[in-house]
Amino acid sequence: MKKYVLSVATFVFSTLAFCNFASSEEEFPLWPDVAPGAATSDVKPTYEYWKPENKTSDACVIVFPGGAYEYLTLGRDAKQLTRFFNERGVTVVVLNYRVPRPENGPKHLPAWQDAQRVIRVVRSRAAEFGIDSEKIGALGLSAGGHLTLMAATSSQTASYEAVDDVDKLPCHLNFAVPVYPAYVLEDGANGPNAKRGIDSPMVADFAFDEKTPPMILLHGDADAYSPNGSIAVYAKLRKMGIPAELHIYANVPHGFVGNPPSGKPVDDWLNRVDAWRKKIGF
User: Fold this and answer.
1) What's the pLDDT tens digit per position in 13-70?
2) Which of 89, 165, 166, 275 is least surrounded by Cβ atoms within 10 Å, i.e. has the fewest?
3) Class of domain 8-279 (CATH, top level)
4) Domain spans of the chain?
5) Rounded to the nearest 5°, which phi and psi values hold at 249?
6) Which pTM value belongs to this model?
């Protein structure tokens, strides 16, 4: 069985980069013992709790980094996101989920288990963190965008057997922000879209159950992971009557989060997310 590894160098870089703007940060183990399906207790996914210096919101944003389910894009991506929300008084949790992909089974299964677990853990610590247990959202990038969709659409499907009392809590999200989500369409189920995602159905990963929350989706139209995936999710949400917002940016490729300002409308994407968050009451 392939061993899951969390990038220590990347985590250290991101931690050092964050220290200038967050009032406090703590890292915690995600599971009480061995993670589901892990061969040994050496596999230890974690979550980081970032408390804003001046907390003005009772919402919490859980960040799912990208990295193709092979590694985690911490560093500049998580730095930008944590700074942005902490400066606006919002609590942030960053999930260091298991990578790389397992040798057998769905590419996202260990990460999905970690995602359902971290939502439950955050909900269990809501009073301690000073947040509302029904104002928990997730923002994910690329593979993390796919993971955000898994967490948002499939919370009524158990990805693992309960290990303690925390797992008695629900793992639904109250809002979701998939950013250039990958692996949404059958054309591109495991990589970039070979046929640009044109006329391709969605993968069967997403249940779109009764706890699927409002979403805002953001994508570039020059992305090798086709924006047609985000369009398909938006259309599905609209059909279900779930509030949704969609932003497709012209001539913008994959991975725009963390880039320096370009003078293009995409530079303002986080402000669009924040305005939407406030508009829907979170």
Assistant:
1) 334 344 444 445 799 999 998 999 987 777 889 999 999 999 999 999 999 999 999 9
2) 165
3) alpha beta
4) 8-279
5) -100, 130
6) 0.91
